Amino acid sequence: MSMRKNRRYGMRFTMNFPAGGKLIYLQAALAAFAVVLGVVFLINNVFLDNTRASIESADSSSEASLDPEGMAKEQAPDRKPVKAASDSEVSPDKPAKDIRVVEKQVQKGQTVSDLLAEYLSTSDIHYLARECREVFPLHKIRSGNSYRFYLKEGALTGLEYDIDEEEKLCVGFEQGAYAVKKEKIAYEVSRHLVEGTISTSLFGAVKAAGERDQLALELADIFAWDIDFIFDIREGDSFRFIVEKRYRDKEFAGYGDILAARFINQGHVFQAFLFFLENGRQEYFNAKGQAVRKSFLKAPLNFSRISSGYSLKRMHPILKRVRPHQGIDYAAPRGTPVKTIGDGKIVARGYQRNGGGRYLKIRHPNSYQTTYMHLSRFAGGMTVGRRVTQGQVIAYVGSSGLSTGPHLDFRVKKHGQYVNPLKVESTPTAPVPKGQRDRFFLEIKPLLAVLEGFRPLYADAEQSQDTD
Fold first, then answer.
1. In this structure, what CATH number is given to the domain that contains residue 313?
2. Is residue 36 part of a domain?
3. pTM of the full predicted structure?
4. Residue 175 is part of which domain span?
5. Please, is 261 exposed, middle or buried when counting C-beta atoms within 10 Å of its C-beta (0-12, 13-18, 19+)?
6. What pairing do the DSSP bridges indicate for beta strands 99-105 and 146-152?
7. CA distances from 13 to 6, 29, 30 (A)
8. Tally of structural domains, the chain
9. pLDDT tens by residue, 105-142
10. What is the mean pLDDT of the chain?
């Protein structure tokens, strides 16, 4: 190697190779270059492998964020697998001191997003809705139903929503995961004796006994096959029944079953005892084990007044001439549901402009046929040939045709001849099965003694008190 002087920059270096040396140096340079290429190739392969793994992971995450229809959703945050939560995790019966419970009711027009927006992000709410879908869809929440939030230091740790009077949705928030389940609402249940005498109406008598209208309706439903509570009730009629009352957090939360009931109507005594059959159903039977349910209801409406009774001679209110009225007129508000009094098949549906207006005719077993007239509209699906079941809503009260106001004109034929609807004979359905009669009589014995006044109600029950 030698140095030579450069005119501009001064000294510069030059390489002097010995003879044959250039080839040796060239081979060494090529070898070094090959080593460098190998290292670069190795590093590149490692980089590509890592990149490929990242892409596959991203693709998997993208697929997980699609709903069943393939529409992209906002990616929810990662969640840990959720196991079934214990009761204390979801809805502690006795919340810890640092847990605050906020209870409210769903307001009209509110959605689950409205309820949770203060505590959860939009993506969290979407994820929660997806987790609840199989248990209870959150879009089905209803106004008026209660819900509770469990808060710890302002953060949501759990929630409950009352689906109905029997079940609630429970959600627990544990370490970024949701535990969702549905469970029965726990009530404290006690038995109460309610009794009263009618002076003006069944509603008035039940209210005078310190109870709510709901009990009057339930009592009427039990004896709906024997008593027309619209037409048959008289001053001096009396009732006595044993009912379950339910309490939640020591607050009255509604009625349970009426276990036994007695109603005296115009001197006739009717009794009913609730009995759980071995097939899982529950039915009311009288003290002899005969079914309270019969082939026909006594009336096609609940609670209104009768404006015109059965008569073969009646002055028609519009035509102003005597015209047979071979049915019963039930005055009721427009839109009141009309029920079929028995199982049957719709045989006619139409409109009589100069008579009964909009009407339905139903054929029943044993050559009976019922007609429902002056209807405002038919219930959905009520077409000729359709089979209907006892108590099913078939239409709604109106004033179509020749009518002075909203009411139901109800008529009954037997073997093609009109008969008084109030005197139609109705046969009981199946009695208590033979193999279960001994258990039935054993179970109703103490209830029967209470109804007949021979003994007080059980120690866990109290005389009826005001539940308002």
1. 2.70.70.10
2. yes
3. 0.65
4. 113-184
5. buried
6. antiparallel
7. 10, 19, 23
8. 4
9. 999 999 999 999 999 999 999 999 999 999 999 999 99
10. 80
